[in-house]
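Thread: Newbie trying to understand structure tokens

Hi all, I'm a second-year student working on a class project, and my supervisor (Dr. K.) asked me to get a predicted structure for one chain before our next meeting. I've only ever worked with sequences, so writing a 3D structure as a token string is new to me. If someone could post the tokens and maybe explain what I'm looking at, I'd be very grateful. Here's the chain:
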Amino acid sequence: MIRRMERWIDTHCHLDEFAAHGGMAYADTERQRAAHAGVAHCVLPAVELANLEAVRAMAQRHGDSYALGIHPLYTPQAGDNDLQALAAAVEQHQHDPRLVAIGEIGLDFFVPGLDPARQQLFYRAQLQLARRFGLPVILHVRRSADQLLRALRELPVRGGIAHAFNGSLQQAQAFIGLGFKLGFGGAVTYERALQLRRLAAELPLEALVLETDAPDIPPHWLYVTAAERAAGHPPARNSPAELPRIAAVVAALRGISEADLAAATRANACQALPRLAALLAKC
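---
Reply by user tm_fold:
Sure, no problem. This is what the structure looks like when written as tokens:
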């Protein structure tokens, strides 16, 4: 029996990093692998001013979509004029149908040494940018959900996606109440991730979207232990081609078919990022 491939949407994939580390042919191969696995579309978020054009060009090259923004981990090296340059880039490409969001933006209170005030400055400025151009946002959420929510209540935007969500039920409900979908990826495949798997199973289906964050957040079957790394094993690199297998885990947790999950998360992605609908009609 031939298994029918579903048309999955990877709502968070850093495909440009494959090109940066292995050349364009490497990125093309990974995207083709994903397509053969049933991934119909990838959303490619920028992380700094230096890769804005790279993600835009990559999206055009593969028929995908992109977001423009400055990631909180890149705020230390960001220049004082980078926000103005980002605004100029968004204005330049505001009518590009493949520009679907402002992102990846947010706050990170897990990585040591980051200036919270500078992160907040960039985060709030980019919320203002999203408001100015009527775009949703793709949020980086790491030990920062409450602070992100506080700013969103002060500076409401057109919803978006809380990427790699791993907060509490109450925080999940708060994001949902503000019009956000929650991104689930490789982390949900680990059996020890009890709270995350509970959320994936019990949250309303209309709140979920799927993602890989490739080449980051590898699923458990790609994980390389510390001992293996010490022995010289290369670190794991996630791929958008892993999305269907990640989705199978989520479907099993919810007790629904993969076809139903694909249809629901596809519709949810279009609600979170409204410009996707026209693009998906062509893929």
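A couple of things are worth pointing out once you decode it. The longest strand covers residues 99-108. The mean pLDDT is 95. Feel free to ask follow-ups in this thread.
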